[in-house]
Specification:
The chain has about 375 residues and is α/β, with parallel strands linked by helices. It is about 35% helix and about 15% strand. The strands form 3 sheets. The protein has a 6-stranded parallel beta sheet, sandwiched between helices. Helix 3 packs across helix 5 and helix 3 crosses helix 12. This is 4-phosphoerythronate dehydrogenase.
């Protein structure tokens, strides 16, 4: 019989694999080499570092992460040792998009002077999106819907698009408009990061990055803490009119100076929604089913009764002013409550994150 080790904080997964495998559930930080000696499969979140120290001398041949990230997995080690890896790319993209705009409108509610320059000049505020994948593309699309001008920067995606245009696989009127990073930083009232953590993005937001930003701009990071040089960010803080931070270097032992400097600070929960978690679980269950040939689970659906509560509130954003949009979004996600909780209990970062009450995503509300 198969043996699975699963992070116990992955929701909606208990009981799914038991008819087909022996399953052990552990906290992510408790998963170590000794408990994997006889495991065939490992299903984790970002809190479990999957590398040689964890995996050597085990029989693990399949790892799935119920998250969008891959930086907690040593892919080179897995490839060289025949370990198949899957993640849940895009599972929580709508949740992160929702977080970004809830936080932005909460920030404007907190300090009405933010974005004043654009308003005084009769211009639409400009939001610069760095990284236009599953999350960034949704952030950009909602920005346009809400009346922002949007700048997009994503060199790898731009290169793929240029190749598709050259080969005739994409027409010019279907193409997305991209710009260089420097142009985006100089011209954006809001800069929001949505990059994966790679060698090329680690510390990309450093001294040069922040010195290039438009004075009085807002900086938002919901991607990876390590994409930002926190020392450089703190040195540039006076230049920024707003700072929203959800991801940090060295979590859970975060930089308290940055916490104090942030206008809105949260414990890495931008992607934490009921639907995002359900999507992540569904994706790893199906991936494991395909790998191990568990036919009954290859098209697995999470029973709706496990999470789908009927919702009557109406969500109506189009054409609304900033104050009205803030009220609509804050009713779904009271972000200041979480900000205060983290500031008052910073040493409990991981506990707050693990026990965060998942919010619902926009699309489950009645739209008008």
């Amino acid at each position: 019989m198969l043996n699975f080790v699963i992070d116990k904080d992955i929701p909606f997964i208990k009981g799914v694999f038991e008819p087909y495998a022996r399953v052990v559930y552990l906290k992510g930080a408790e998963i170590d080499n000794s408990c994997l000696r006889h495991a065939d499969a490992l299903i984790v979140r970002t809190r479990t570092r999957c590398d040689a120290a964890l995996l050597s001398d085990t029989r693990v041949r399949f790892i799935a992460s119920a998250t969008i990230g891959t930086d907690h997995v040593d892919l080179q080690y897995c490839n060289s040792h025949g370990i198949h890896f899957e993640n849940a790319a895009g599972c929580n993209s709508s949740a992160v998009m929702q977080y970004v705009y809830t936080a932005l409108f909460a920030l404007v509610h907190k300090d009405s002077r933010i974005l004043d320059d654009s308003a005084r000049q009769g211009k639409r505020p400009v939001i610069g999106v760095i990284g236009v994948g599953n999350v960034g593309s949704k952030v950009a699309a909602l920005g346009e819907y809400l009346g922002f001008d949007v700048l997009r920067n994503d060199p790898p995606r731009e290169a793929l698009q240029e190749r598709a245009l050259a080969e005739g696989r994409l027409s010019a009127n279907e193409a997305t408009s991209y710009c260089r990073l420097g142009f985006l930083l100089r011209n954006s009232d809001i800069v929001t990061m949505h990059v994966p953590l790679l060698d090329t993005t680690r510390g990309m937001a450093g001294s040069t990055f922040f010195s290039s930003m438009k004075p009085g701009a807002v900086f938002v990071n919901t991607s990876r803490g390590e994409a930002v040089d926190e020392t450089a960010l703190l040195a540039s803080r006076r230049k920024l009119s707003g700072l929203i931070i959800d991801v940090w270097n060295n979590e859970p032992a975060i930089n308290t100076a940055l916490l104090d400097a942030a206008d809105i600070a949260t414990p890495h929960i931008a992607g934490y929604s009921v639907e995002g978690k359900a999507n992540g679980t569904l994706m790893v269950v199906r991936a494991a089913a395909r790998y191990f040939g568990i036919g009954e689970l290859e098209n697995y659906e999470i029973p709706k009764e496990m999470y789908d509560k009927s919702l009557t509130p109406v969500l109506d954003l189009k054409g609304k002013g900033a104050g009205q949009i803030f009220k609509e979004l804050y009713e779904i996600f009271p972000i200041f409550n979480l900000d205060n909780l983290l500031r008052d209990n910073v040493s409990d970062f991981e506990h707050i994150r693990s026990n965060y009450k998942l919010r619902r995503e926009f699309h489950v509300y009645q739209q008008r």
